[in-house]
Description:
Blueprint lengths: L23 H12 L5 H11 L2 H14 L11 H14 L2 E4 L7 H4 L7 E6 L8 E6 L5 H16 L3 E4 L5 H9 L4 E4 L13 H10 L1 E4 L11 H11 L3 E5 L7 H10 L3 E5 L9 H8 L3 E2 L3 H12 L2 H4 L24 H10 L5 E2 H8 L3 H13 L3 E5 L2 E4 L1
Parallel strand pairs: 3-4, 3-7, 4-5, 5-6, 7-8, 8-9
Antiparallel strand pairs: 1-2, 2-6, 10-12, 11-12
Amino acid sequence: MAKSDGDHASLFQSAPLPIAKLGPAETLACLRLIRSENVGAVTFRTLINHYGGASRALQALPELSRRGGGKRAIRLCSLEDAEAEMDAAQRAGATPLFTIEPGYPAALAAIDAPPPLLYVKGRIDLLNRPSVAIVGSRQCSAAGHKLARLFAAGLSEAGFVVVSGLARGIDGIAHQTALPHGTVAVVAGGIDIIYPPEHAKLTEQIAVEGCLVSEQPPGFKPRAQDFPRRNRIISGMSLGVVIVEAAARSGTLVTARYAGEQGRDVFAVPGHPLDPRAEGTNRLIQQGATLVVSPKDVIELLKPMAGLSETRFGLLMPEAVSTLPTSAEAHPPEVGEVIHEKILQALGPAPVDIDSVVRATGLSIREVQIAVLELALAGRLSRPGPGLISRS
């Protein structure tokens, strides 16, 4: 599985993201950093690793963008806008949770470019319990309905939190069945947006008895492209993904693809060969997904790692500390326009990984890392996928 930023994302690879409970000022600074121009998940991680906190990183953005050749001042998210978003979250009953805080899902934090910020509502403790995703067709058959209930009941009673996307069909059935034991619903829109409308009551129940999760700000109405983004969170939070009914072009297969890329187990419940709702599921089995016919099949495979989920993902969470590091790091050394141009000349519209740029240019990994940060903040290169860069 290709790594996005795993080996080369940060300026100093030995410097992990600081884990700390953020105070109000640093919470606003983190939000402002995330909402500022050209700061995505990878750049957020890089900046936090280097500067030890969002406040210092925010101060550094204009200079880094200038060094990268930005033709105008980089747009920083204003304090007023950040405060307005936090106020909206408070009205919605949602809590912001950043990757640098304890309680952020350890499994999700281990994927390439995890969402820097999640809004959560409900039982936050569920986010770090061993989890299994159950997803499938919105237009499920009676057999699919029964199978979703069977797997959700069996897995939740065995101690797994059931994660899904709160969609019609299989997702909703899985949430409803697992609710007494623990379920997490990842939504594509803002945490205060009810979608689909018929799940209004279920959403209210999950917000109290389970946990709602969204990477979008409150009030955000989901678009078609937001559902695949949601799916990477569903698989990223889970030890494995159970697929119950998926058509050949089902969005459920996107979740399965993300699971494979993230190193998660993919389990597929076989369906009748003549039922188009099972075509995608059966094809997954042909492609190497694990065939399962009962919850016991999943439990037996995941049980050895379930109690060690944090160890498996290499993210044993330390005790919360009261503050972030207090010693400010200097700007990384300026690499200069010659190196910028050398990297840009090596890039084209097709995304490549940073290691390929290092080999093509003969530059050191440190020079490339610094230059990529500056060029990204200046808007002169893009990061179209985990670990990938291309010319803008």
